[in-house]
Amino acid sequence: MCSSDLPSRDAIRDVLDSPARIPQISRRGEWVYNLWQDAQNPRGLWRRTTLKSYALPQPQWETVLDLDALGKAEGKSWVWGGSTCLGPDYRRCLLQLSPGGSDAKIVREFDTVTKTFVEGGFTLPEAKSSVDWIDRDTIYVATDFGPGSLTDSGYPRVIKRWKRGQALTQAETVFEGRKTDVSAWVYVDKTPGFERTVFGRSPDFFTTEQFMLQGERLAPLAKPADAQVTFWADQVLMQLRSDFVVGQNRWPKGSLLIAAASDFVAGTPQWHALFTPTTTRSLSGFTLTRSTVMLNVLDNVVGRLQEWTRKGQAWQSRDVATPSPGTLRATALHDSLIKDDPLAESYLLNYTDFLTPDTLQLARTGSDAKETLKALPPFFDATGMRVEQRFATSKDGTRVPYFVVWPKGAVADGRNPTLLYGYGGFRVSQLPWYSGTYGRTWFAKGGVLVVANIRGGGEFGPAWHQATIGALKQKSYDDFAAVAEDLIAQRVTQPSQLGIRGGSNGGLLVGAVMLQRPELFGAVVCQVPLLDMQRYHLLLAGASWMAEYGNPEKPEQWAWISKYSPYQNVRADAKLPPVLFTTSTKDDRVHPEIGRAHV
Question: Of 65, 70, 512, 536, which residue is the least packed, with the fewest Cβ within 10 Å?
Answer without folding.
Answer: 70
